[in-house]
TrEMBL record:
One of its GO terms (biological process) is mismatch repair. PANTHER family: DNA MISMATCH REPAIR PROTEIN MLH, PMS, MUTL (PTHR10073), DNA MISMATCH REPAIR PROTEIN MLH1 (PTHR10073:SF12). Gene3D superfamilies: 3.30.230.10, Histidine kinase-like ATPase, C-terminal domain, MutL, C-terminal domain, dimerisation subdomain, MutL, C-terminal domain, regulatory subdomain. HAMAP family: DNA_mis_repair. Pfam families: DNA_mis_repair, HATPase_c_3, MutL_C. This is DNA mismatch repair protein MutL. This protein is involved in the repair of mismatches in DNA. It is required for dam-dependent methyl-directed DNA mismatch repair. May act as a 'molecular matchmaker', a protein that promotes the formation of a stable complex between two or more DNA-binding proteins in an ATP-dependent manner without itself being part of a final effector complex. One of its GO terms (molecular function) is ATP-dependent DNA damage sensor activity. It comes from Thermosulfuriphilus ammonigenes. GO terms for cellular component: mismatch repair complex. InterPro entries: DNA_mismatch_repair_CS, DNA_mismatch_repair_MutL, DNA_mismatch_S5_2-like, HATPase_C_sf, MutL/Mlh/PMS, MutL/Mlh/Pms-like, MutL_C, MutL_C_dimsub. Belongs to the DNA mismatch repair MutL/HexB family. Keywords: DNA damage, DNA repair, Endonuclease, Hydrolase, Nuclease.
Length: 560
């Protein structure tokens, strides 16, 4: 007798339900999405014991006709799809016809509904997979869905649920995410009789501010449309950054999604504006023809696949970058973020003169002018910070961040004009590298020349560097070249962002470090150079200076 057996229907239903319904928050997500698809203007959710004992979702949508209620709780029964072609034109949140059937197989499910044209509503119950007959029921227009004793027939699944408070928190986050895409709908969430969330109908900035604890002025608007793809939304200003990336929401066709592609594009676009390990808050929406995406790649529809990933990456990157650059055009008295402008610098071209240029190096040993006018430093603290008197108080400079920004700007200008001057090495520097790095070295030779670097595959698993930008430490060659080629090998990053990262890396390696003792003349020259580049952030997003105004000092010493 064969070992492979067909599973009983009851077990198959439980397995299928487990793919769609993982926890109470999954139930709430599916039921709220159904309400939104039904055109609800008001959604109310009640919980008991974190949704384990009871979840009730009430809406004022179009309702379900009595004759459709039996099918509504059957698997693969849906009003959203009628043919295979419809799979490529999905704009609704739900479409598979699995959610209610899955919920009914692992709970006591009661649906009461009335369409606007019906004088009386109807009710159907499903007790752990066993469906009752449809009966008449008095109710207002819309639908009420009650889910009781979730996973009571699956003790193992129920044991893996978290505490009531933890499950309630997950449900709260789920409702918040959905509410941001449906700001024209009011939402109310109650748990154990306590009001947890109450959102009136409002515009998107108001709802964002309410949920994220920010004001309208704290957001930057995003708007860009190209090749049939529209991007819009709001992003918090850098000074309102969070230490947790979970305050940023992505939406595709108003569906909350998780996407490594979108997250990576955002991360690249915000570099230089947000400090390390700080993240923007907000919501970003993509609207595009449904046939350009696949929303059917995850049981809970949390992930989406784009057919033109490069286009989506570039669109998001450009929209965010433009908004941040626009924000950076502030008055001189305000702090100005670092705003690299590299998008117009080509990575490829006729660069034969790049490595052989005889002109003076862009980054050379400092030649300080001891008699030049300019700001005069008061001194150095901890061999790391430079004190300087400003117009209205005390300015404290981070010497490494300040020098790094100056070098970056010089490098950027040199690369844009004719490339960095390379210097042949007396002996090539040979180091081991992995296959992707070696392949990148072969493909990026002309690009490296523009940076004053000549690097080629040498032997099995090795790379040799034959020339290096003048003025840069040669001890860093293996590490810097490996880092540059590693970034090149990853691809997908827009050219401007890639070049920004590489130049920022070179500037960081060449800049004075924390702990370096500087003479008064060196500090003076550094401050003079800084006046040429009006930005108060280094290429990696760290501030180069802090300002203590007169009133701050007076407050410290209780003069006022």
């Amino acid at each position: 007798m064969g070992k492979i057996k067909r599973l009983p229907q009851e077990i198959a239903r439980k397995i299928a339900a487990g793919e769609v319904i993982e926890r109470p928050a999954s139930v709430v997500k599916e039921l709220v999405e159904n309400a939104l698809d039904a055109g609800a203007s008001r959604v109310e959710i009640d919980l008991d014991k974190g949704g384990k004992a009871l979840i009730r979702v009430r809406d004022d949508g179009q309702g379900i006709p009595a004759e459709d209620l039996p099918l509504a709780v059957e698997r693969h029964a849906t009003s959203k799809i009628g043919s295979e072609a419809d799979l490529e034109a999905i704009r609704t949140l739900g479409f598979r016809g699995e959610a209610l059937a899955a919920i009914g197989s692992v709970s006591h499910l009661i649906i009461t509904s009335r369409p606007p044209e019906s004088p009386l509503g109807a009710r159907v119950e499903v007790r752990f997979g066993q469906k009752s007959e449809v009966v008449e029921a008095g109710c207002p227009q819309g639908t009420v869905v009650e889910v009781a004793d979730l996973f009571a027939n699956l003790p193992a699944r129920r044991r893996f649920l978290k505490s009531d408070r933890a499950e309630t928190t997950r449900i709260l986050e789920t409702v918040k995410a959905l509410s941001l895409a449906w700001e024209g709908v009011s939402f109310r969430l109650k748990g154990q009789g306590r009001l947890l969330l109450n959102l009136p109908r409002e515009d998107l900035p108001d709802r964002l501010g309410r949920l994220l604890g920010l004001g309208k002025k704290d957001f930057l608007p995003l708007s860009l449309e190209k090749e049939g793809v529209k991007l819009f939304g709001f992003l918090s200003r850098p000074e309102k950054a969070r230490h947790d990336p979970r305050s940023l929401y992505f939406y595709v066709l108003r569906r909350p999604v998780k996407s490594s592609l979108l997250a990576r594009a955002l991360n690249e676009a915000t570099k230089g504006f947000f400090m390390s390990r700080s993240y923007p808050a907000g919501a970003i929406f993509l609207d595009l023809p449904p046939e350009r995406i696949d929303v059917n790649v995850h049981p809970a529809k949390l992930e989406v696949r784009f057919r033109t990933e490069g286009q989506i990456f570039s669109l998001l990157h450009q929209a965010v970058r433009q908004a941040l650059l626009e924000k950076s055009r502030l008055k001189a008295v305000e702090t100005r973020p670092f705003t690299p402008q590299l998008e117009d610098i080509p990575l490829e071209g006729a660069l034969e003169s790049a490595a052989s240029s005889k002109e003076a190096p862009v980054v050379a040993e400092s030649t300080f002018n001891y008699h030049s006018p300019g700001p005069r430093p008061l001194g150095q603290i901890l061999a790391t910070y430079i004190l300087c008197e400003g117009d209205e108080g005390l300015v404290i400079y981070d010497q490494h961040a300040l020098h790094e920004r100056i070098l970056y700007e010089k490098l950027r200008r040199a690369v844009k004009e004719k490339g960095l001057a390379g210097e042949p090495l007396l002996f090539p520097v040979v180091f081991e590298a992995q296959a992707p790095i070696i392949e990148a070295a072969e493909e990026a030779r002309r690009f490296l020349q523009r940076l004053g670097i000549e690097a080629r595959p040498y032997g099995p698993g090795q790379i040799a560097v034959y020339s290096w930008p003048r003025g840069f430490l040669k001890e860093d060659i293996p590490r810097v070249v490996s880092d540059i080629l590693g970034r090149l090998s990853q691809g997908r990053m827009p050219e401007g962002s890639l070049l920004h990262e590489i130049l920022a890396l070179l500037a960081c390696r060449a800049a004075v470090k924390a702990g370096d003792h500087l003479t008064e003349a060196e500090m003076t020259e550094l401050l003079k150079e800084a006046e040429r580049f009006p930005s108060d952030y280094c290429p990696h997003g760290r501030p180069t200076s802090a300002y203590l105004k007169k009133m701050d000092l007076e407050r410290l010493f209780r003069r006022k």
